[in-house]
Specification:
Length: 623
């Protein structure tokens, strides 16, 4: 067909690139500056090639009446080998195969869904491939009622942009618009999000814009202008601030909005923002955040980021020179907790002591490092964040990175005592910051969580060597004996061993009950959700108190990671009850229902006895 005829067809597009179904065909558009000729080759039928017309601005486009939803296709550029669409909506055979035309139409039933209030987020990180034995969105959707019963309000789904291999974490995605074929079809993902909304659960998506994977990355073959001069720690980065960057910025910003618009995600978790290199104003992170919000103006979106330098600019409003995100991950809480619970201060844990003062400061101020010198990094770390609301910080005892950053991939309950872990869980769940569980954490799973990927040849060798090199920063993992125990990250065994077994919800019912009770306490006790202020004090070498100030209707959270502590007399003023009231015990980690040893009679006036390795919650009540 003549290119001019194709060009004149009236079309309506949602995105500026990709294949979009129309009433009587499909409109294709590709950015390929510097190229002379682009054709669309239809593949799931008689091979049919259609030319696209140059728009004289680097774009090629055209209408193909022979295509429809379900049609598979590739592009031929300057008579070269066929390549998949960089804006493909689905790759049924993986990144190296043809792209598929996908309609965004879906029978949504979430029209009344408005999202989760900022104070109500209780997060749950999920890797679809290992969350269930089947490793699919359909199987994960069947677990949503149980997550609702647990009290989860927000799922953080690890990356799903298609990547090479049969399994992986998803951080080496190469088809940013294509939900991976490994977990089902695009409508299976839509169904998962729709079902989550029916259960009152928000879903945010982990997105990776700091690099593209190597296996299946065809962008540079289409045009080298996609890639920037700087590479991240993990691979080639995007051209956000070099020559001809505007189409690249639009490609990424529209991708952020695409997941919100076409899949009804409730927000994004932007991976490793410190490795997104952009010297422009506005920064691309701010631009993609604004684009995502514009895609769903009537919903309360939750857009958060991982940022190792702890730059508070990301969570400041645009009118203050910030990027407008809702929250940042607070690694300081995780690292201080890991030291307190295990005693190990290797590698980056060496900046922490796990002391009561650290936990009081975390509760009051968010980040610990806000510009001080880091011994591990040998430079200053963090920026001032004392004025930031505490709901702008996300805390956790586990996540996919930290569990897997070891030889064995064991969970925290296998590395510390039951009493300390119960106390730390109460501390996390009742913080004014946002708590996050890593899949299975609620029932103390016996299975590990490993790093796993599926590559061939030199890439597989590089992953194995890179994994060993990374773990050598931990002296305990750098011995020949421990290196010999490291699972092959390229093996299917590492992947299969990481799958959850939900029968352990009953086997480890004590842990499950405790998590459910703590989430309920956080949800139902409005003081923990809306406390006007919080103060804290050190009570002993391993003990501290947090006081939630609420106009006399106060709460105390007492945590003791050490030996039994008797405070008699109790000279700390934060232990004094409000005028005319007394303290009443309402929760104890030593409750026998949680395998605790029992809580001694609580006095609260004549003296305080804090059991060893415990947490107590008390409220102001009648005298």
């Amino acid at each position: 067909m003549d290119a001019e005829i194709i060009e004149k067809k009236q079309v309506t597009r949602r995105l500026h690139v990709g294949a979009e179904a129309q009433s009587s065909g499909v409109h294709f558009r590709l950015w390929a500056p510097g190229r002379r000729k682009v054709e669309v080759r239809l593949e799931n039928g008689p091979t049919d090639t259609w030319p696209l017309a140059s728009e004289n601005n680097g774009y090629f486009s055209g209408f193909v009446p022979a295509a429809a939803p379900g049609t598979t296709y590739r592009y031929r550029i300057d008579d070269g080998p066929p390549v998949p669409d960089p804006a493909s909506r689905f790759q049924p055979e993986g990144p190296h195969g043809p792209s598929m035309v996908v309609s965004p139409a879906f029978a949504w039933t979430d029209q009344k869904w408005t999202g989760i209030a900022p104070e109500d987020h209780v997060m749950y990180e999920m890797h679809i491939g290992t969350f269930t034995p089947e490793g699919t969105w359909a199987a994960a959707a069947r677990q949503l009622p149980e997550l609702k019963a647990l009290g989860i309000t927000t799922i953080e789904m690890m990356p799903v942009a298609d990547f090479g291999g049969r399994y992986g974490w998803g951080y080496d995605g190469v088809n940013l618009y294509a939900p991976t074929r490994l977990y089902g079809k695009p409508d299976d993902l839509r169904h998962f999000v729709n079902r989550a909304h029916e259960e009152g659960i928000a879903v945010i998506l982990d997105v990776v814009y700091n690099h593209l994977g190597i296996d299946g990355n065809y962008l540079e073959q289409i045009t080298p202008d996609y890639m920037g001069a700087l590479h991240s720690e993990w691979g080639p980065g995007f051209n956000f601030d070099g020559p001809n960057n505007a189409p690249v910025r639009r490609f990424v910003a529209e991708n952020a909005a695409y997941w919100i618009d076409e899949f009804h995600f409730d927000g994004l978790r932007i991976d490793a923002t410190q490795q997104i290199f952009d010297g422009s104003t506005p920064n691309i992170v701010a631009e993609m955040t604004a684009a995502a919000r514009a895609a769903a103006p009537s919903r309360r979106l939750f857009i958060v980021a991982e940022n190792e330098p702890q730059d508070s600019k990301l969570i400041r409003a645009p009118q203050e020179g910030g990027y407008g995100l809702d929250a940042l991950y607070n690694d300081d809480f995780h690292h201080a907790s890991a030291v307190a619970l295990t005693g190990r201060r290797e590698a980056y844990y060496g900046d922490y002591f796990g002391t009561p003062q650290e936990f009081v400061s975390l509760a009051r101020h968010g980040f610990l490092f806000q510009g001080q010198y880091s011994k591990w990094q040998r430079q200053r770390r963090g920026t001032p964040a004392l004025d930031r609301p505490r709901r702008q910080f996300i805390i956790g005892l586990e996540n996919h990175d930290q569990v897997a950053n070891s030889v064995t991939g064991r969970r925290l309950w296998q590395l510390t005592s039951g009493g300390r872990l119960r106390a730390a869980t109460a501390l996390m769940m009742l913080q004014p910051q946002i708590p996050m569980l890593f899949q299975g954490q609620e029932f103390s799973p016996s299975m590990p969580f490993h790093y796993f990927a599926n590559h061939e040849g030199d890439m597989a060798v590089a992953v194995r060597e890179g994994r060993q090199k990374f773990l050598r920063q931990f002296p305990s993992a750098a011995t020949p004996e421990m290196e010999s125990r490291l699972p092959d990250p390229e093996s299917e065994e590492a992947f299969q061993k990481s799958k959850l077994d939900f029968s352990e919800r009953e086997k480890h019912a004590v842990s499950y009950r405790m998590h459910k009770d703590l989430i309920r306490l956080r949800r139902e006790d409005l003081v923990f959700r809306h406390a006007r202020d919080i103060d804290g004090a050190v009570l002993g070498h391993d003990a501290f108190v947090l006081r939630y100030l609420n106009g006399g209707d106060d709460r105390l959270l007492l945590v003791n990671f050490g030996k039994e502590l008797n405070l008699y007399p109790a000279s700390q003023p934060l232990l004094a009850p409000p005028a005319g009231k007394n303290w009443i015990l309402i929760w104890s980690s030593e409750d026998p229902r949680y395998n605790g040893a029992g809580t001694p009679d609580f006095e609260g006036i004549t003296g305080w006895k804090l059991p060893a390795e415990s947490a107590l919650v008390v409220k102001a009540g009648p005298p």
